[in-house]
Design brief:
With about 150 residues, this protein is an alpha+beta fold. Helix content is about 15%, strand content about 35%.
């Protein structure tokens, strides 16, 4: 049986005290780091502001023939990542879109971006683009995934 001051519960008391110190240290660390404006991360747990959303490029159609018009949607076209409470980041003024087919690249144009970092863009598939698998990318959004596209006959 456990008795106050007995030998059997000394290990339990020591473990409870140890975990209490670990939790108190983590809370202190979180308070100091969060107060300095930086995020706090304990692997599975993160405190602080939300991370910036990665920019994206979507195509309303995934295939078209040369001369056809395709709608491109761009989101997250912002100048900086402000996820530490600095306020909203300004949107880029414009984005350039490229169509890549194998080693060939075709500039589809440079297009205005709205103040919220979104753009809805109508592009024309170049007549000189060869048939086959292609991607649409933007050098202004290097972290955006490329949008797959097929150029048909």
């Amino acid at each position: 049986m456990l008795a106050c001051g007995g030998h059997e519960d000394e290990g339990v008391v020591m473990r409870v005290r140890m975990w209490g110190l670990v939790v108190a240290g983590a809370i202190t660390l979180a308070g100091c780091t969060a107060g300095s404006g930086g995020p706090v991360s304990f692997g599975w747990f993160a405190a602080g502001s939300a991370a910036c959303a990665a920019p994206s490029i979507w195509l309303e159609s995934t295939e078209a023939a040369p001369g056809d018009t395709v709608e491109v949607l761009v989101s997250g076209a912002i100048a900086d990542c402000s996820d530490q409470g600095e306020g909203l980041s300004p949107a880029l003024d414009s984005v350039t879109l490229l169509l890549s087919v194998g080693e060939q690249k075709f500039e589809l144009g440079t297009f205005d971006v709205a103040d919220d970092g979104f753009a809805r863009i109508a592009v024309v598939v170049p007549d000189a683009a060869p048939r086959g698998e292609a991607t649409v990318t933007s050098p202004d959004l290097p972290s955006a995934d490329s949008a797959p596209f097929t150029i048909t006959d």
